[in-house]
Amino acid sequence: MLTRKSLLNKSSFLFSKLSGVDPLLHKNILAMQRLDKIFSSLTRYYPYSTFALDPASLNMVICDIIVNSRKNIVEIGSGISTVVIAKLLEMNGIEASFHSIDADEGWASLINQYLIDEGLTERCKLHYIPLSKSGSHWYDETTIANLKPAIGTIDCLVVDGPIAYLPGTKQARHGALAHFQDLLQERHSIFLDDALRPGEREVIARWKAQFGYDFKTIGSVAVHLNGSHHNIE
């Protein structure tokens, strides 16, 4: 059946094709327009670099939190998305647990200062966890294990860390499910950023083999939705 949403998606795609605009770029432009209400409510401007979730991916996370009533959110790799998600929780009066993890102490301190500036420290708990000295390129396993009781369970897992573009680190993000799969609720979502890179494609294949999870790549993010859910695209 041709729904209003499918008509809008087809119209958007045709417009981008006819205008010569890359479809993904057009999708990101539309997403920024949709996210504007959150960004414009912040007290100051914050950097939005190419390392961050792109607008289309971030918008899907935001939609998932709202329409699928996510209440236990974990983000691996902090950034502007941390501030935006925390602000969403405040704006919409969503009572949720939100933990964000980062391996860069200076960066974690900076993002935490943004949360302080916006009065959002009650909406997000940011944790600096250094990488393991074992050479796994994952976070320190003991610190992660000690954090898990505070997290409790997870119904939305956003994976954008640790760094996985340097030589020898391309499968660093495999640890996200290796260490947190046991906390996932029956109804949950998983977002893996940079899903078009070879390393992340290998991670997705390993997760499929180990946990049986299927992922759909949408733009630059791979998405797994488990259990009943509403559309977030």
TrEMBL record:
Keywords: Methyltransferase, Transferase
Keyword Signal annotated: no
InterPro entries xrefs: SAM-dependent_MTases_sf
First and last residue of the signal peptide: none
Source superkingdom: Bacteria
GO biological process, one term: methylation
Molecular function terms from GO: methyltransferase activity
Pfam families referenced in this protein's UniProt entry, alphabetically: Methyltransf_24
Descriptive protein name: Methyltransferase domain-containing protein
Organism listed in the record: Dyadobacter soli
